[in-house]
Design brief:
By secondary structure, the chain is mainly α. The protein has two domains: 158 residues, UbiA prenyltransferase (Tetracycline Repressor, domain 2, Orthogonal Bundle), CATH 1.10.357.140; 148 residues. The protein is 72% helix and 0% strand. α3 packs antiparallel against α6.
């Protein structure tokens, strides 16, 4: 049973966030290049490992507060199912193996970004998550580092507009999570300060404004990014003799913009109407319309760009 609780403590659901490292490959149209994909997959595995170590540190540090939370009290460390000593040993092993080897297995610049990510997560766990606005910005920087890590592992360039779009989405998820957690604690009649002190500094009006801003920012920056990208893959070339040249020069990635608009709108619906969103990765997997939208968007982007 301890192995089961240990795996739970690593939070494999949240590894989905690390898929951002594949973004540079997808939008460069080289996702199916075996050597590039292998390097990106290694980057993905390294981020999963160090992220899990960071989650363990966070759960050890917050165990007492988590026991007062209606959901987090079931985490392995907070519930006592996983001894703290075992968690610390796992953290030591993961960091000792992964951080030095990243410089040699994947690349020097990737190793630097991975190290920066670890420092950022440690700073977040011990200080930054208790600073209003900065906590959400720290989460956003973590996503940006993942994207740059994927690009540096190959290496490839990365669009500034794509970075801005990732920033908007990550801020939306961060502020949405805060809003959903406030709603959950209010429904349970639990003091916000007892489980996450930063929540008492986030009034609903401020969170609503930040969520609205982040949602708009996400849609606008992704739309501008899609407008700039004009892939010339085999599908487009095969259609050259059947459709007008005007359509051939169209920015086909713009066809995915409605999916992004719907996805953002659906996430807002989940937060405000379904009163969920405390765990974004769980929302993505459990909310069927949002899940299917994400799958259709991924398939569409891959077909258009690769």
């Amino acid at each position: 049973m301890m192995i089961y609780h240990f795996v739970r403590a690593l939070r494999p659901r949240q590894w989905i966030k690390n898929a951002v490292v594949f973004a540079p490959l997808v939008f460069h149209g080289v996702l199916f290049n075996p050597s590039y994909f292998f390097k990106a997959f290694l980057a993905f595995l390294y981020f999963c490992g160090v992220a899990s170590a960071s989650y363990l540190i966070n759960d050890i540090w917050d165990a007492q507060r988590d026991r007062l939370h209606p959901v987090k009290k079931n985490r392995p460390i907070a519930s006592g199912d996983l001894p703290v000593k075992v968690a610390w040993v796992a953290v030591f092993i993961l960091f000792t193996i992964l951080l030095p080897s990243a410089f040699f297995v994947v690349g020097k610049y990737f190793g630097i970004v991975l190290l920066l990510y670890v420092f950022l997560q440690i700073a977040y766990n011990f200080k930054l998550k208790n600073v209003i606005i900065v906590d959400a910005l720290t989460i956003s920087i973590g996503f940006i580092l993942r994207a740059f890590a994927g690009a540096l592992a190959i290496p490839l360039s990365i669009s500034s507009w794509l970075i801005l779009a990732i920033t908007g989405v990550s801020l939306l998820l961060a502020f949405g999570k805060r809003r959903a957690e406030r709603t959950l604690l209010e429904a349970q009649g639990i003091s916000k300060a007892s489980t996450r002190s930063i929540l008492r500094h986030y009034p609903d009006n401020l969170l609503d404004s930040m969520i609205s801003m982040s949602a708009s920012f996400s849609i606008i920056t992704y739309s501008l990014f899609a407008f700039q990208v004009s892939p010339e893959n085999s599908v487009v070339r095969d259609l050259s003799s059947y459709i007008p040249s005007t359509l051939l020069s169209a920015k086909l990635l713009m066809l995915t913009i409605p999916l992004v608009i719907y996805g953002v709108g659906r996430y807002l619906y989940v937060i405000y109407e379904k009163r969920e969103g405390e765990s974004p990765e769980r929302v993505l997997l459990d909310d069927k319309p949002l899940f299917y939208t994400a799958i259709i968007w991924i398939i569409s982007v891959i077909l258009i760009t690769n």
